[in-house]
Design a protein that fits this description.
Blueprint (H helix, E strand, L loop, with lengths): L2 E5 L3 E2 L5 E2 H12 L7 E6 L2 E4 L3 H10 L3 E6 L6 H13 L12 E2 L1 H22 L7
Parallel strand pairs: 2-5, 3-7, 4-6
Antiparallel strand pairs: 1-6, 4-5
Length: 135
């Protein structure tokens, strides 16, 4: 897979929150000089959307990096679910990695606020067969 440099301010998050524990772990790795694994990105509905690696991207942004290594997402994921998640982000004013500042929560709260919300959304999508019915 070919790696490219993605501009951090051009990447649309698909996640509303970050775990403080995971962020601290990534920041420790960066401080120790470890390189970041590339973040997967998909071009979806006119945006470059992060499908994973939000914590890595935010840590790089917070460190002052302007770009991050990225790869094109090749897995066949649930794009309807990603559209819902991007919609949530846009509604919350999250249009770039920088907008995740202030959305760092304790690990248990991350599970409650984000993981459970996504599980409910996935159940709803499966039962409705249409992402438009979920909000």
């Amino acid at each position: 897979m070919e790696t490219f440099e993605a501009n951090l301010t051009d990447l649309q998050p698909s996640q509303l929150y970050l775990s403080d524990e995971k962020l601290a772990e990534v920041e420790r790795s960066l401080a120790a000089g470890e390189a970041l694994d590339p973040v997967p990105v998909i071009h979806l509905d006119g945006r470059e959307v992060l499908t994973d690696g939000h914590t890595r991207a935010f840590a790089a942004f917070r460190r002052g990096d302007r770009t991050i290594p990225a790869i094109r997402e090749t897995d066949e994921l649930d794009w309807d679910a990603y559209r819902v998640c991007v919609g949530w982000c846009l509604e919350a004013g999250i249009a770039s990695v920088a907008d995740l500042e202030g959305r760092i929560v304790p690990g248990g709260r991350f599970e409650e606020l984000w993981i459970r919300r996504c599980r409910r959304m996935h159940r709803q999508l499966r039962s409705s067969g249409d992402e438009g019915g979920y909000r």
